């Protein structure tokens, strides 16, 4: 088998192992708690930040999964766990049919397949490396000769819309925010990954520049056959980029489904509140009442039962006791809300039909 | 609640009036003109949003109004009158009374604006004591009253919190309480909701709108987000490279933007722009380098409708509608836009 890193003509599609039906990435039971004190008798750690607390999802080949949620909901931690920057406490990550960390797919091989772009374009670049050295760094670590790695860096610069002759020798501080983020994208693509995780990658940019970078991301996806996990707090941007959307709240998945369904007729009350919180763009139709009161609760001691029940306007007694499972309300649309589940005992839930086929 | 669509026209003198305000930073290798002639007038009970991208001079304008810029490295020109007084002529004691007493400011990061080693309630009480010469007890009482007014839950116990014990949204509410502690007439808000979550941002925006109406405050609200400006503003002023390129009634500016820059910003943000499978309409290039501005209109190098006349001089303000002006030569009578010309041909 030829090594995709050493052979620049290698077709990424030829790396497909499981076929189109196999999700590119599937994650089950992902858990990450930070800190806390564990008793010598064992059991749950006390006072731990339950950043990610049992998350399952899958990303199909060639799609863009948008991940939305407020600060503390665990979206960035999920991204870092998928990227294996931090180790999960529990859970399994399967990439194209191979468990990550197994003999068939060790971490070095996995990191050629998955790359990440961060929010802070300046902090994520080494200030003492020139642009071409930054981009060539990854391939060189993975054994590409220097001359060839530099050549590939120049190709990538052109691909992200920066003229190699002008930009190759510059340092990060000589670039604008938008240019730096293009460098970060080029660096992520240098190892020819199949999955790119974009963690708030356009959030720090000025609006006029943000639109340019979003267009670039769409072009690169089409040209290189990439799959994106696109994390953002901006629902407009997610609507534009994503095929499917996953909404997270306090370390759990609240709702996941096709983006046009989720962002138009959400089933989870939290998704509805997020949508209603978006500032109006019509001066005659301003928001009159805030959809939610207060801040998201602290993930150190999340509410019992449904984690959203403390802020939900449809909350009922059962919500504080029963954690809602993530269940399908229609094909490919899953919701973790007792109201959406027939026979759950929530007053607004449909009764259970015994004779349902 | 009805929207504050028509604010009362200020009678007599405006509360805030800047004429040809300029700010030059001289500390670096090359002098930078961050604000290049801003005329801004604001009456009581009016909320104007300064809209612009990073480096457009919106925050510097705000700081100049309160004389918060470092005096040795920043030169302020033009005139600033707030509540009938010349801000540049204030002495040290007058300035201390003016800050907080007449004009107050809320910042993007409330976590950085509070002193981390004092209780939040004490910091508010101290401001009231210093400004109004009252006892500690009545300072605390006022702090409690304000905490309840900005709807901090269990206000009495929250007064004894240190800033780090509060969540972001609650800290911003406390910041607003601090700003209102000495009954200012003018409130300056510098991206007060940018660091907040979406569901919290809308709460703070609605709170500000409500307080502004209740206290009859004049508010200058700096933001980069058109949606946020649309939610709160009576009037909008769009800044680019240190100048106001378009200003007018909120509805007019949003519905019928007259400057190509405003149009570009709106087209890249409006709801319909984010349709899947289409490409976003973008403004090419990047925000301008303030040390090397082009002659004439600073937006011309990025403008699809630029023509040679754009470089001849900075365009004057031309009326686009009755309540709305813009600095673009396309509004001059007889000047035809290129896109119109091709459409006619």
Question: How would you sum up this structure, described in words?
Answer:
Chain B: It is found in: Cell inner membrane. Chain B: It is a peripheral membrane protein. Chain B: Keywords: ATP-binding, Cell membrane, Membrane, Nucleotide-binding, Transport. Chain B: Its main location: membrane. Chain B: This is Dipeptide ABC transporter ATP-binding protein DppD. The complex is a heterodimer of chains A (357) and B (345). With 357 residues, chain A is an alpha/beta fold. Chain A is 26% helix and 19% strand. Chain A is built from ten helices and twelve strands. Chain A has helices spanning 75-82, 107-113, 131-141, 146-159, 164-167, 177-189, 207-224, 235-241, 259-262, 269-276; strands at 25-34, 49-59, 64-68, 90-95, 98-99, 114-117, 195-199, 227-231, 244-249, 252-258, 327-330, 333-335. In chain A, strands 6-7-8-3-9-10-12-11 form an eight-stranded mixed beta sheet, with helices on both faces. In chain A, strands 2-1-4-5 form a four-stranded antiparallel beta sheet, with helices on one face. In chain A, helix 3 (131-141) packs parallel to helix 6 and helix 4 packs across helix 6. The model of chain A has no long low-confidence stretch (mean pLDDT 89). Chain B has twelve helices and twelve strands. Chain B has helices spanning 58-65, 92-101, 110-113, 120-132, 136-149, 155-158, 168-180, 198-215, 226-232, 250-255, 260-269, 338-344; strands at residues 16-25, 32-42, 47-51, 74-82, 85-86, 103-106, 186-190, 218-223, 235-240, 243-249, 318-321, 324-326. Chain B has 345 residues and is an alpha/beta fold. Mean pLDDT of chain B is 89; it is low at 1-10. Chain B has a domain at 115-178. In chain B, helix 7 packs parallel to helix 8. Chains A and B meet through helix 6, helix 7 and helix 8 of A and helix 7, helix 8, helix 9, helix 10 and helix 11 of B.
